[in-house]
Amino acid sequence: MSTVARPAPAATPVPAYDVAAIRRDFPILATRVYGKPLVYLDNAASAQKPSAVIDAERDVYEKCYANIHRGVHWLSVHATDAYDAAREKTRRFLNAAEAREIVFVRGTTEAVNLVAQTYGRTHVGPGDEVLITGLEHHSNIVPWQMLCEERKARLAVAPINDAGEVDVDVFARLLTPRTRIVSVAHLSNALGTVLPVRRMAELAHERGIPIFVDGAQATPRMPVDVRELGADFYAFSSHKTYGPTGVGVLYGRAELLEKMPPYQGGGDMIRSVTFDKTTYNKLPHKFEAGTPNIAGGIAFGAALDYVTGIGLERIAAHEHDLLVDATEKLQAVDGLRVVGTAREKAGVLSFVIDGVHPHDIGTVLDRHGVAIRTGHHCAQPVMDRYGLPATARASFGLYNTRDEVDALVGAIHEAIRMFR
Ligand code: 7TS
Question: Average pLDDT over the chain, rounded to whole?
Answer without folding.
Answer: 96
